[in-house]
Amino acid sequence: MTVNIGIKAEDETAAGKTIFVYEWPVRLWHWLNALSIVILAVTGYFIASPLPSLSGEASDHFLMGYIRFAHFTAAYIFAIGFLVRAYWALVGNHHARELFHLPVTSRKWWSEMLHELRWYFFLEKLPNKYMGHNPLAHLMMFLSVTLGGAFMIFTGFALYGEGAQEGHWSHTLFTSWLIPLFGQSQSVHSWHHLVAWGIVTFMIVHIYAALREEAMSRQTIISSMINGTRTFRD
Amino acid sequence: MATETFYEVMRRQGITRRSFMKFCSLTAASLGLGPTFAPKIAQAMETKQRTPVIWLHGLECTCCSESFIRSAHPLAKDVVLSMLSLDYDDTLMAAAGHQAEAVLDEIKKKYKGNYILAVEGNPPLNEDGMYCMHGGRPFVEILKEAAADAKAIISWGACASWGCVQAAKPNPTRATPVHKVITDKPIIKVPGCPPIAEVMTGVITYMLTFDRIPELDRQGRPKMFYGQRIHDKCYRRPHFDAGQFVEEWDDDAARKGFCLYKMGCKGPTTYNACSTMRWNGGVSFPIQSGHGCIGCSEEGFWDKGGFYNRVTNINQFGIESNADKIGGTIAATAGAAVVAHAAATALSKARSDNGNQAKSDQTKGGK
Question: Which residues of B134-148 are buried (b: 16+ CB within 10 A; e: fewer)?
Answer without folding.
Answer: beeebbbebbeebbe
